[in-house]
Amino acid sequence: MIETMFNILFYPGILLVLVLSILYFGILRKLAAVMQNRVGPPIIQPVYDIIKLFGKEGVVPHQSGYGFSIWPVISLSSVLIVSLIVPIVFSGLISFNGDLIFVLYMLVLSSLAYYLSGFSSGNPFGIHGAIRGIVQMIAYEIVLAMSIVVVAVVNNSASIVYNSNWLINSYPLAGFGFLLAFFAKIEMPPFHIPGSHQEIVAGSTAEYTGSRLAILELAHMIKTFVLIALMVSLYLGGASSLLIFVLKSIFVLFVILISRVIFARLKINQAVNIYWMSGIIVFIDLFRVIFF
Amino acid sequence: MDDKIPKCNVNSDISNSIPIGPQHPALLEPEYFNIRLDGETIIDADINVGYLHRGIEAALEKKDYVQSVFLTERICGICSSHHTIAYCGAIELLHGAEIPMRAKYIRTIIAELERIHSHMLWLGVVGYEIGLDTLFQLVWRDREHVMDLLEKISGNRVNYAMNKIGGVRRDLDPKILSEISKTMDIIKKQVIHYIDIVSKDNIVILRTKDIGILSKEDAKKYSAVGPVARASGIKYDVRDTGYEAYKYIRFDVITETKGDVFSKVVVRAKELIVSSDIVKHCVKHIPKGDIYIKLPLIVPSGEVVTRVEAPRGELIYYVKSDGTNKPARVKIRTPTYANLLSVKTMLIGHDLADVPVIVVGALDPCFACTDRVTILKQTGNEILDASNLRSIADKKYN
After folding, report:
1. How many CB atoms lie within 10 A of CB B6?
2. Is the Cβ–Cβ distance between B346 and B358 less than 8 Å?
3. Are B1 and B395 in contact (CB under 8 A)?
4. Which of helix, strand or coil describes residue B21?
5. Nearest CA to CA, how far is A131 from chain B (Å)?
6. Which of A250, A286, B138, B147 is exposed most, by the fewest CB atoms within 10 A?
7. Interchain contact B354–A (C-beta under 8 A)
C-alpha cells in the first residue's frame, strides 16, 4: 500500500512525469533557440513560468460561460491519468485489458477540453481558435486512431504491450501518420494553427490568466510528454531502462525540433487537406496489416 | 457630434467578426480593422486609423525652420531620413540654393542604408507573420550589421540627425567608407541567400502566392505607390526624377506583374540588392568638397512641393512660407496613406489567416507617418480646423 503510493506519486509516477515533461519542453525551447542563432531561455524555464502563473491573479471575464474554470481542470486530469498508464519503462504503472483504447479516448478528451475552454471564454479570438482546433481534430484524430489500430493488430491485443521490435521499420507509413497526428495534437509547426498568435491573439487561451492558464500550460506539457512516450513504446520498440527511454525520446525530440525550426504555418484548409492525405497513407498500412 | 460622419460600418455578432487591432500581436503599430467573416473567409472589412495622431502639422507651424527639421525626422522611425531629405530639399528649393555635391552623395548613402534596414525589418516581419520564426531571427541578426554601421556614422541607430538645411551635419571619413563597402558585400550575400529560401520554400509559396492580388487597374484606381504598385506592374519610382545624387547613378527599377504577396516579397527583396549596389557606387565615386553651405534663417515666401521615394513609396511634402523664420503650412502625404485605400480590395475573399500577411506583409504599413486628419462634412467640401476638431472631441469624450 505504501509502495503503491510511492509508485504513483514519485517513481515512476507523477513526479517522474512532471520532471521529464518539463525537461523535454525546456530542451525543446532551448535547442530551437540555438538553431536560430540566439541564446534562448534556460532549460528549467517552464518551471519558472508555471510558478509565476500560479502567483498571478486569475481574472474571470464577465462574458465567460460556466465551464471557464472546469475545462482546464478536465484537460489536466485526463492527461495525468493517461501518464500513469503509458509505459515509461517496460509497462505502465497501471495496466488493464483494453487500456490502449482508453488512452486514445482520454487523449481526445484532453484536447477537446482544451478547445472547449476556448469556447467558454466568450472572446471572439478564443472562439475562433477553438473553431480551428475542433476542425483540425476531426481530421487528425482519425489518423491517430488508425495508426494506433495498426499497432494493436500487430501486437494482437487491445492493451499496450511491450514489443521490442521497431514497428516503424516494418510499418513506416503508419509511423509517419502517427508522427503527423502527433505534431497536430501538440500544435507544433507546421500545424501550429489554433494557437496562432499572429492572427488570433493566443487562440483558445486568450482570456486565461493566473492559475487556470498554469493548468492549461501544464496540461500541454504533459500531453507532449505522454505522446512522446506513446511513440517510443508503440513504434520505437519500448524501453527496457530509463536511460534508453530518455535516449529514444531525445530522438523523437530532434524530429520535432527540426520541424519546428524549418516550417512556416499552414492555413487551416491546407492543413486539413494534408491530414486527409496522410489518412489515406495510413490506411494503406492498415489494410496491409489486417489482410497480409 | 455630427451623425453624418461615416462610422466604421461593419456590424456583426460575436462569432463572425474579429477586430484586428488597435493592439494585436500581428501589428507593429495601432490600427483597427473590423473584419466580418463567414467561417474563415472574409466577406467585409473596414479600416480605422488615427490612433497615432500627434498633431505634427500643427506643431511644425510653431517651430522655426531649423527646429522643425528635427521634428520632421521623428515623424517615423524607419523612414526618418527621407522625411528630412524631402523637407530640407523643399526649403533649399525655396531659397533657390544648391547644396554641395558631397552632401548630395552623403544624403543618398544614408537614404539607401535606411531603405536597406527598413526592408530587412519588413522581411523579418513577413517571416514572423507566416509563422516562419527562423527567417525572422536570422534576417534581424543580419540587419544588425546595417544598424551598427549607422551607429558608427551618426551615433544613432534610428533618427540619425544627419541632414540640415543646406547640407549634412557630419562627414564620412575614408575608414568609414571602406567599412560601408565591406558591410554591403556581406548584406548582399545574405540577401541573395534569403531570396533563394523564400522563393523556393513550399509553405512560404503556399502562404503567399495568389494571396492579396492587386491588379494593375485596381492599383491605378486606388493610387497605390511604392513597391505595392511596382509589384502590380506599374513602373513608378520617384528616384527616377533624379533628386539628390540619383541623377548620377544608374539603377534598376524592379517590377513584377502578378500583384500578389509573393511578387511584393520578390520586389522588395530585389530592391535590397539594388540599394546595396547604389551604396557601393556612391562610396566609390563620392567627390571631395564641402558638406554644407550656410543659408539664411529667414526663408523667402513661396510654396513648393518635393517628392522622394521613401522605403514604402512616394512621400510628398508641401511647404508654404510667408517670409518669416517659421513655416506657414507644411502638408505631408505619406505613402501608406495612399496604399491604405487598396487594402480592402486585397482582403476580401481571402481567409482570416491571410490578414496579417496582407496587411503587414504586402502593404508594409507605417502608421506613425500616416495619421493626419482631414474631416469633410457630408454637405459640401468644408474642411474642419483645429477649434472645430477640439469641440467635436469634447462632445464625444465628455
Report:
1. 8
2. yes
3. yes
4. coil
5. 9
6. A250
7. yes
CA separation for the pair A174, A288 (Å, rounded): 11
Cβ of B351 and A35 within 8 Å? no
Give the separation between CA B373 and CA B102, rounded to whole angstroms: 38
Residue A48 has pLDDT above 90, yes or no: yes
The H-or-E segment that residue B38 falls in is strand B32-38
DSSP class of residue B362 equals: I
Give the integer Cα–Cα distance in Å for B47 and B365: 13
A268 to chain B: closest CA residue: B353
Distance CA A154, CA A34 (A): 40
Q: Minimal Cα–Cα distance from B280 to chain A, Å?
A: 28
Instruction: Give whole-number Cα distances, B241 to B79, B108, B109, in Å.
Output: 19, 14, 17
In CATH terms, B56-337+359-370 corresponds, of 1.10.645.10, 1.10.760.10, 3.30.870.10, 3.10.180.10, to 1.10.645.10
Q: What is the DSSP string of A152-208?
A: HHHHTSSS-----S-HHHH-HHHHHHHHHHHHHHTT-TT---TT-TTTSTTGGGTT-
User: Which of B79, B124, B239, B233 shows the shortest CA–CA distance to B224?
Assistant: B233
pLDDT band for B55, please (50, 70, 90 cuts). Answer: confident
A127 interface with B at CB cutoff 8 Å: yes
The residue behind cell 477540453 is A113
**H or E, element range at A229:** helix A210-234
Q: Which amino acid is at B213?
A: I
Q: Give residue-wise pLDDT tens across range B168-198.
A: 999 988 999 999 999 999 999 999 999 898 8
Domain count, chain A: 1
Are A249 and A93 contacting, i.e. CB atoms less than 8 angstroms apart? no
Query: Which amino acid is residue A229, in one-letter code?
Result: A
How many angstroms separate the first and last alpha carbons of chain A?
A: 46
Distances (CA, A) of A200 to A193, B24, B31, B126: 10, 8, 15, 16
Q: Model pTM?
A: 0.86
Which of helix, strand or coil describes residue B331? strand
Q: How many other C-beta atoms can be found within 10 angstroms of the C-beta atom of residue B314?
A: 21
Least confident among B9-23, B25-39, B199-213: B9-23
Residue A66 DSSP symbol? G
Q: Do A198 and B132 touch (CB under 8 A)?
A: no
Average pLDDT, chain A: 88
Chain A residues with CB under 8 Å of B137 CB are 36-38
pLDDT for the residue A242: 87
Q: What is the pLDDT of residue B345?
A: 85
- The residues, ordered by sequence, that sit 6+ positions from A195 with a Cβ below 8 Å of its Cβ are A129, A187, A202, A203, A204, A205
Mutation target vs A (from B23, B40, B204; most A CBs, 10 A cutoff): B40
Name the CA dihedral angle for A189, A193, A199, A204, rounded to a multiple of 10 degrees.
-120
Residue numbers of the domain that contains A38: 2-291
C-alpha cell recorded at residue A252: 523523437
CA separation for the pair B124, A278 (Å, rounded): 32
Alpha helices in chain B (DSSP H): 56-60, 65-73, 80-95, 101-129, 133-154, 174-200, 202-208, 216-221, 226-230, 261-285, 335-339, 343-347, 355-356, 367-370, 386-397
